TrEMBL record:
SMART domains: Iso_dh. Pathway: Amino-acid biosynthesis; L-leucine biosynthesis; L-leucine from 3-methyl-2-oxobutanoate: step 3/4. Catalyzes the oxidation of 3-carboxy-2-hydroxy-4-methylpentanoate (3-isopropylmalate) to 3-carboxy-4-methyl-2-oxopentanoate. The product decarboxylates to 4-methyl-2 oxopentanoate. The record marks Y142, K192 as: Important for catalysis. One of its GO terms (molecular function) is 3-isopropylmalate dehydrogenase activity. This is 3-isopropylmalate dehydrogenase. It catalyses: (2R,3S)-3-isopropylmalate + NAD(+) = 4-methyl-2-oxopentanoate + CO2 + NADH. Substrate binds at R97, R107, R135, D224. Residues 5-353 form the Isopropylmalate dehydrogenase-like domain. It holds the Pfam family Iso_dh. Mg(2+) binds at D224, D248, D252. PROSITE patterns: IDH_IMDH. Keywords: Amino-acid biosynthesis, Branched-chain amino acid biosynthesis, Cytoplasm, Leucine biosynthesis, Magnesium, Manganese, Metal-binding, NAD, Oxidoreductase. It comes from Prochlorococcus marinus (strain MIT 9211).
Length: 360
């Protein structure tokens, strides 16, 4: 029997509650499809600060590096707001991503059929939304040098540098072209090439690479126009390729098209080696330990891990179908529109997902 080594990072806030639901669903499909999962649970973020005074203990990073995949819930809590930036929970996650070299952040944004009529946006706008944002994650303005703050005669000045090399652009663009090849063969690259030199290089490289993917239809949008088009007519997009800063903004905007942050998974990948799979939402400290969190983004992150990380496509399909079924059966958590629906807590929703798995 094939056995995978998966590191679990339940993190903070609602993290442990939703992780518990996810592992139960993974165990169910693992048994059904006859593969084994060996979990190794490690600390990151606030829980790691409490125990080791370090948001990313060495042993956590080491375990992640030698795993087949890493499944993370969420990190962070207002409790740590007073700490300096490099000591806060969020720096643990940033260092984990860079420590694993995860340069490609993949966020699928799909509207679940049962939720279309419950969207706060117009039904005709959201009904066909099914896109993926591919965001460069380890370069760009978040990491570029020089950066900092300087005292000058005229007061203080602060600066960051947006920089990309051809190597960094080529490798993320390749991920996006390959994904587009597997989907609707449409790729939109988002930049600001009318203003930024770094975007001009970005665009040149993407065009250069497109000759290797003649079946993929490529277009380019300036980021300001793209932000508008996403709201105006989101179904024009299939795969979106963009850099770190623009991707941060565009992917949150795209996420809202689906109505709830509690439904969206993500993956952060490199070419070889373990990927990191996590929900798009944060640790939701305001609802932690109340058993009301929506565990579906976490279960869908587990599905992405099974599909992309472990290549267990049937198991991944089952998890996604089970989510589709609970929604169609009228079950909701309280972050979703609940008018006339059956509202469940986190644990009850987990049980309902398991029942849908068993009914498949
Ligand atoms: P981060 O900085 O970690 O991204 P954030 O400040 O953006 O965190 P979240 O933790 O994502 O915020 O929470 C934003 C809001 O969405 C909160 O009101 C939270 O309760 C709600 N929320 C987030 N995730 C869920 C979930 N899985 N189920 C229900 N509500 C959620
Ligand atoms: Mg957030």
């Amino acid at each position: 029997m094939k056995t995978y080594n998966v590191v679990l990072l339940p993190g903070d806030g609602i993290g442990p509650e939703i992780m518990d639901v996810a592992t139960k669903t993974i165990d169910y499909v693992a048994q059904k499809y006859n593969f084994g999962i060996e979990y190794e649970q490690k600390l990151i973020g606030g829980s790691a600060i409490d125990k080791y005074n370090d948001p990313l203990p060495e042993e956590t990073l080491k375990a992640c590096k030698s795993s087949d995949a890493v499944l993370l819930s969420a990190i962070g809590s207002p409790k740590y707001d007073a700490l300096p930036r490099e000591k806060r929970p969020e720096s643990g996650l940033l260092n984990l991503r860079s420590g694993l070299g995860l340069f490609a952040n993949i966020r699928p944004v799909k509207v679940w059929p049962a939720l279309i009529s419950e969207s706060s946006l117009k039904q005709e706008i959201v009904q066909n939304v099914d896109l993926v944002v591919v965001r460069e994650l380890t370069g760009g303005i978040y990491f570029g040098q020089p950066k900092g703050r300087l005292q000058s005669e005229n007061g203080e000045r602060a600066f960051n540098t947006m920089t990309y090399s051809t190597m960094e652009i080529d490798r993320i663009a390749r991920v996006a072209f390959e994904l587009a090849t597997d989907r609707k063969k449409k790729l939109c690259s988002i930049d600001k090439a009318n203003v930024l030199d770094v975007s001009q290089l970005w665009r040149e490289r993407v065009i250069e690479l497109s000759y290797n993917f003649p079946k993929v239809e490529l277009n380019h949008l300036y980021v300001d126009n793209a932000a508008m088009q996403l709201i105006r007519q989101p179904d024009q997009f299939d795969v979106i390729l963009t850099g770190n800063l623009f991707g941060d903004i565009i992917s949150d905007e795209a996420a809202m098209l689906t109505g709830s942050i509690g439904m969206l998974p993500s993956a952060s990948l490199r070419l070889e080696g373990p990927g990191l799979f996590e929900p798009v939402h944060g640790s939701a400290p305001d609802i932690a330990n109340k058993d009301i969190a929506n565990p579906m983004a976490m279960v869908l992150s587990a599905a992405m891990m099974l599909r992309v990380g472990l290549k267990e496509n049937n198991a991944a399909d089952d998890l996604e179908n089970a989510i589709d079924k609970v929604l169609k059966d009228g079950y909701r958590t309280s972050d979703l529109m609940t008018n006339g629906k059956k509202v469940l807590g986190c644990r009850e929703m987990g049980e309902q997902i398991l029942m849908s798995l068993a009914a498949a």
